[in-house]
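Q:
My hope is that you can spare some time for a protein that puzzles me. I hope you can help me see how the letters and the tokens relate. Thank you; the sequence and its tokens follow:
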Amino acid sequence: MVFELPDNLHPDCAPVAWLLGRWGGRGKGDYPTIEPFEYGQELVFTHDGRPFFHYFARSWIVDADGEKVRDAAQEAGFLRCRPGGDLELVLAHSSGISEIWYGKAEVAKFELHTAGVGFTESAKEVTAGKRLYGNVNSDLLYAYDMEAMGQPLQPHLWAQLERQ
């Protein structure tokens, strides 16, 4: 699918402009406190000319045939683009978790690390995370490592998404 830069793209957003649009695909999840699973996912990145992207993601658990079993996680936030490729991500999750992330954009990829995590009384205890996003052959590949529930930082989610 052809991707065009918006006319009003803020210059600080240029290093991650390839994210703009809607992405969809499948991924896998695992963690010592849960059973492994497969999921479908949709990510949307939008821009209005200011130095940030609005971000929304939703996912659903799928069976071995890729059919939806049930709805799963949702998260929304803002990817704030700073001069020199510095990034800040502010996220809120449907599960009662909020996070602040910092990172730096490189050519067609970026990595983020948590600087702070908050969670509601009813949420699972998440203490840290690392996210890696990359544009590989025009697909969005990402991996999310999580430190939670007394477990050390380790792989939790990974997916390959296509531009929709």
Summary: The CA atoms of residues 103 and 112 lie 4 Å apart. The first strand starts at residue 21 and ends at 31. The two ends are 8 Å apart (CA to CA).
